[in-house]
Amino acid sequence: MFYWVMKNVLVGPWLRLAFRPWTKGVENIPSSGPAILASNHLAVIDSFVLPLVLDRQVQFLGKSDYFTGGGVRGRMVAGFMRGVGTIPVDRSGGKASEAALRTGLRVLDEGDLFGIYPEGTRSPDGRLYRGKTGVARLALESGAPVIPVAMVGTDVAQPLGRSIPKPMPIGIVIGEPLDFSRYRGMEGDRFVLRSVTDEIMYAILRLSDQEYADVYAATMKARLAAAAQHPEQPQDPAPGS
Questions:
Q1: Residue 93 lies in a domain
Q2: Does 235 map to a domain?
Q3: Is-contact 176 196, C-beta < 8 A?
Q4: Interatomic CA distance for residues 54 and 153, integer angstroms
Q5: 61 forms bridges with which residues in the sheet?
Q6: Buried residues in 129-147 as b, exposed as e (16+ CB within 10 A)
Q7: Cα separations (Å) of 61 from 49, 72, 154, 192, 233?
Q8: What is the residue-level pLDDT of the chain in tens, covering all 241 positions?
Q9: DSSP labels for 114-133?
Q10: Which of 110, 125, 130, 179 is the most buried (most CB within 10 A)?
Q11: By C-alpha distance, which of 97, 7, 93 is closest to 50?
Q12: Whole-angstrom Cα distance, residue 164 to residue 48?
């Protein structure tokens, strides 16, 4: 109920007015049953804009920081995230990340839509980065189709470091479902997981027309941070390095 109120009464109308979202391929979202929406990740607002154009509710993973902020603003953000179905995930990895994946499987087992950003974090420069294999595990363990999604222009509306996005048209391109049932039962094979993940990322790449960087986004962010702290030391941020 709170999700419906947020989307259609309190927040959604304002977001539609500000971003005037245009869409392509919405018919690829099934009217019922589980599906994984695998999207590129350019800005915080990605998780707010995509649900606006869907008839069904979609639940995303969100970094745990959104749920632990202090003060009135922190509580409001946490309440909003819970209200729209965002699932907190600890980026420290290990058991915490495993628990997040289990939660995703629960969402899919209940026949709902689950949204995930295979890059693991926002792109630092607008390129599409190497996907992490968690999305492949979800697909193979659940048997749910993977629907590639490309957010277009959200990084222009809300570049890194900008908390309040500027109003402008934003696009959402949704591709045809990908079926990985041929790999069912092989979720323990890391080579299969990498192959499935790469296929998903290539589908997103075709939709988004981004430049591809064959390195993890978190690795690139670390390189850029190191270069900023030590500008006197040459840094080579090339994807293949």
A1: yes
A2: no
A3: no
A4: 18
A5: 87
A6: bbbbbbbbbbbbbbebbbb
A7: 15, 23, 18, 23, 36
A8: 667 777 777 777 888 899 999 999 999 999 999 999 999 999 988 988 898 899 999 988 776 776 777 776 667 667 666 666 677 766 565 666 677 788 899 999 999 999 999 998 899 999 999 999 999 999 999 999 999 999 999 999 998 888 889 999 999 999 999 999 999 999 999 999 999 999 999 999 999 999 999 999 999 988 888 888 876 665 555 554 4
A9: EEE-TTSS--SSSPEEPPPT
A10: 130
A11: 7
A12: 13
Number of domains forming the structure of the chain: 1
Torsion sign across C-alpha atoms 57, 58, 64, 65: negative
Burial class (CB in 10 A: 0-12, 13-18, 19+), 82: middle
CB 128 within 8 A of CB 40: yes
Q: Residue 143: what residue type? A: G
- Helices vs strands, H then E, count in the chain: 9, 9
CATH number at residue 188: 3.40.1130.10
Query: In this structure, is residue 127 part of a structural domain?
Result: yes
